[in-house]
């Protein structure tokens, strides 16, 4: 009895973790073997999900008699849970917690797993994506990305909501069911399904190495629309609560909108704050002398941006994305070369293992979870509306954007973007959080099925699709011929000094790194003390930093001399590669004057 | 209400993890700053514990009204837990789980944290310690290490048990308390406190860089005695259950002894199995072409050795230690040079962060846990008995070992070993698992205090102590003059072909790596098929592996020519550096013939 208790305590964590590790190993080896045989169709996410499904099935078959029960018969579930030897944590029989917190309250250990998984692996994945991004390209496409992420996600949400509302009405008519979905429930589902997933999209893009502009558009959209989807979901929930009747309520609407702005700006600022801390720490201390400490501090501070944002109820994904972008722009210049390599490798491992873990877990939960509610009409409606909404999102917005863009988004890109609407971790996380208990199980099940469908079917078909659309693949994201031409193009437009340049080159770079003009020059007289405090203490002292800044500064001039002959081909690009400024809200429709961005982007390549 | 529930779900994990990350950051920066000012007295473990204490105090002060209550008034605790907003997991009011599983059942989330912490961070720490070990030195001192680990730990356990029994009798006499500690309870405490801790000892040793032999003795003992302590604890628990009266029971004793052997051999084999899998995988596939995959697979398989052992109820620490030792001996030869560097760096980061996390958590739980039971007599008895038992362990065993060793363990080493009996994570984990509810709180509290005492007082005093004893510090574990002499010494004794050499050089190396003589030569005729299957497919094909093996083979001959003049000083070493064989049970008392070990140890340096 007593020794059994000891044994049991050991097993609680070690066995599931061991199962997860074995799953990850099998996934890695299968994908690697399959790729050796030139099966370009497999992707990690899909294979991880497949093995997760197998594990979920096994667990369910083995522990079928001890399985959990759905809410409603809470007491029975409790009595069973006492005899269960898989879980030590049970819920109270009072049912308060269970009823208030939605469907997952009878499986606290699963919610806990999920939270651990997301807090552990999501930040490195997003950070890695942002950190290794080609910054020049991203800034050049920022306007379009923001348009897709903001307007596109809202369009998607509305479209899916409307479609689903129609389908649920049809469902009631045809099957004469009592249970009715309100419009708000449909909109909630729309919000959950509206966001494409950065994890799966990144996995797909890094596997296929598509054209850089297409990469930027898809990845940028998938990261930023997460914030929009999270906020939309929250806003709809809040709106429903403030306004149980289905009349339009301006106060609730305003409330939701203000909340939206707070989440976005708050997350952005949190990401920036952690970058500033890291940059100042690496600039003003001798941390770079110890690469292990440097790596640890950098890793922990970047992770903190996600954790602190989540702890405040903001969007951790948005915070860690901005943190990654700004770390790659500023902090990286202060690091030692060994620290830089270590950080990149550390995030690479986390990114790789995290992707496998998250998708494996999703597959596992799909078969392990016993309270699924399959509504055929709802599911088929969801399937259809996902495509319809994507079409309504991409084509009209691309048309509008092309009016402003000189470097038009070609039709084949639009087709692929319409096609590559993979859903994943973010939709899953939002579906878990649905609190409206009448529809939560239907929404959860349908969301999971949509994720499996998009990842398996669309993810697998991406490679043939690209070939059919004749979009070039296998592009090296760093060493690109076009990039050079692109740099010349921006160099030649270097006539107006925009706000972004001032902020970035004249204030942020000198303050956070050892590069750029001294702060004492760029800041007004009244900020003399401030300028002296933040001035680089290592100017003319440390050779490595000097070199780095010189490489950065010299890059454009070098390219100018080198690629004079290629400028003919760059003309179509040159006019279109305008710069957007996040701060003055220009949406990249070609109206903003071009601004120079010396040395941008190159930091990640060093 | 509903939005509050959403918020709450996010906070459950993000906020504590954020607090932990902040704690780790502050610890890293403090230790680093303090070390810059030449405060040699600080060690990471102590500082992490200090900040953990501060956090625990803060949490306790803030949530004091919502705090948990000790078992006994279970229903009250339950009602409070419902209103608590820190934890989502509650226990059932039936009290079954609570009473059966000991003190921590009213804090399932804490036990869960603890398990996650140990499963996540303990394996990389021990693995890193074993992987970066100087294998030659370790093998040379193996006999003494095993003596200290086995005989020493049993002596310690008995000593502490006897001392504590005396003190508890005194306690009953003086304070006229009713509660009585049985002898088995005292022995249980003895078993918990008997093992020195690999994490804190490693932290101390790598900070101070003491003499290599002393390093081997202390680290080897601390890793192996963990297994002994775990098994002793389990055996005493089992014995108590089988034999509630305090009469000697041969059946229960035999049962405990068999269990001891099973745990030790099982853990050893599990560690070896995972090494064999990793080695064969890296030998026969082209995994080395992708360093990221290589690193991931290596990391996951090494981690699996710990997890699988824990899941089977064996000792994960022993398994992962043997896995680390054998991975460094065989698998490392199959890896690409980039993979090798990445793996080392990855484990370094985990080791660094893991140590801080575990000790920070121990400090936190000391002040956060509300059910402490301070027994002044018990605590002072423990304090005294820890020193007494250590003296009874080190001095007599060293005397006996010195009879057999030609390279005697000097008195100053003995003093330092007696002094450096740091307790830590393993004792803590064992104390958490104590199931005898009458004494569990006293044992838990006393164990935690002993850990704090040994780490703060003994850990801080280690540096002055070393100086006073005139033991040299700042030794580089890899590039050591003595090592070369040592290699010559073993080379010159290369006359008999022992069992270990045959097994290692003739069978294991050719089977698991690309080095050594072909299996077709060393294996008998009847195993022809087996030999052909495991023969290296890349012989004369891959340059890198060839080079590696050549470097290994050439090392000794190079050294021979180089250090001819230094052999005068090596004479005292040469005779004593005998080899022990784990398999034939020689305890290193100088009776085993010397065996050659070509190329051993150098693998970690490449």
TrEMBL record, chains A, B:
UniProt membrane topology term: Multi-pass membrane protein
One term under GO cellular component: plasma membrane
Main location: membrane
Skewed-composition ranges (Low complexity): 563-573
Cell compartments where the protein resides: Cell membrane; Recycling endosome membrane
Protein name: Sodium/hydrogen exchanger
GO-annotated biological processes: regulation of intracellular pH; sodium ion import across plasma membrane
Segments of this protein annotated with the region Disordered: 552-606
PANTHER family: SODIUM/HYDROGEN EXCHANGER, SODIUM_HYDROGEN EXCHANGER 9
One Pfam family it belongs to: Na_H_Exchanger
């Amino acid at each position: 009895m007593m020794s059994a208790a000891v044994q049991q305590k050991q097993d609680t964590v070690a066995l599931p973790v061991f199962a997860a590790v074995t799953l990850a190993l099998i996934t890695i080896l299968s994908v690697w073997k399959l790729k050796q045989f030139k099966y370009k169709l497999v992707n990690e996410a899909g294979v991880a999900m497949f093995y997760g499904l197998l594990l979920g099935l096994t667990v369910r078959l083995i522990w079928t008699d001890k399985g959990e029960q759905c809410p409603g018969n809470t007491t029975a579930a409790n009595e069973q849970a006492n005899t269960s030897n898989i879980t030590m944590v049970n819920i109270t029989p009072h049912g308060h917690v269970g009823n208030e917190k939605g469907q997952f309250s009878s499986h606290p250990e699963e919610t806990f797993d999920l939270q651990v998984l997301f807090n552990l692996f999501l930040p490195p994945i997003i950070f890695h994506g942002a950190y290794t991004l080609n910054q020049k390209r991203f800034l050049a496409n920022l306007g379009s990305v923001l348009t897709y992420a903001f307007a596109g996600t809202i369009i998607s949400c509305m479209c899916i909501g409307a479609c689903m509302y129609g389908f649920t009405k049809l469902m009631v008519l045809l099957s004469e069911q009592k249970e009715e979905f309100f419009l708000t429930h449909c909109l909630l589902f729309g919000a959950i399904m509206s966001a494409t997933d950065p994890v799966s999209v990144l996995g797909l893009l890094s596997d296929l190495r598509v054209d850089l502009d297409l990469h930027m558009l898809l990845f940028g959209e998938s990261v930023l629309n997460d914030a929009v989807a999270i906020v939309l979901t929250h806003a709809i929930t809040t709106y429903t609560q403030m306004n149980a009747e289905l009349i339009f309520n301006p106060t609730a609407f305003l409330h939701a909108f203000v909340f939206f702005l707070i989440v976005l700006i708050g997350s952005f600022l949190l990401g920036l704050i952690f970058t500033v801390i890291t940059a100042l720490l690496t600039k003003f201390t001798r941390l770079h002398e110890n690469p292990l400490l440097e790596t640890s501090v950098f890793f922990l501070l970047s992770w903190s941006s996600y954790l602190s944002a989540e702890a405040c109820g903001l969007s951790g994904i948005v915070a860690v994305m901005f943190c990654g972008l700004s770390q790659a722009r500023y902090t990286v210049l202060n690091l030692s070369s060994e620290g830089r390599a270590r950080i990149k490798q550390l995030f690479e491992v986390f990114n790789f293992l995290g992707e496998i873990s998250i998708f494996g877990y999703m597959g596992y939960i799909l078969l392990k979870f016993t309270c699924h509610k399959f509504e055929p009409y709802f599911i088929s409606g969801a399937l259809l509306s996902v495509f319809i909404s994507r079409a309504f999102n991409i084509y009209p917005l691309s048309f509008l954007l092309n009016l402003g863009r000189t470097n038009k988004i070609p039709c084949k890109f639009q087709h692929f973007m319409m096609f590559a609407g993979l859903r994943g971790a973010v939709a899953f996380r939002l579906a878990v959080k649905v609190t409206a208990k009448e529809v939560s199980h239907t929404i959860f099940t349908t969301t999971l099925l949509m994720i499996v469908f998009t990842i398996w079917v669309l993810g697998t078909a991406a490679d043939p699709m690209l070939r059919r659309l004749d979009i070039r693949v296998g592009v090296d994201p760093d060493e690109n011929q076009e990039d050079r031409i692109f740099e010349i193009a921006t160099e030649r437009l270097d006539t107006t000094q925009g706000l972004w340049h001032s902020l970035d080159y004249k204030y942020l770079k000198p303050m956070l790194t050892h590069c750029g003009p001294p702060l004492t020059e760029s800041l007004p007289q009244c900020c003399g003390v401030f300028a002296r405090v933040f001035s680089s203490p290592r100017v003319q002292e440390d050779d490595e930093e000097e070199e780095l800044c010189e490489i950065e500064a010299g890059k454009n001039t070098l390219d100018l001399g080198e690629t004079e002959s290629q400028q003919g081909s760059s003309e179509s690009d040159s006019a279109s590669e305008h710069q957007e400024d996040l701060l003055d809200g220009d949406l990249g429709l070609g109206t903003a004057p071009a601004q120079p961005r010396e040395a941008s982007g190159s930091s990640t390549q060093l």
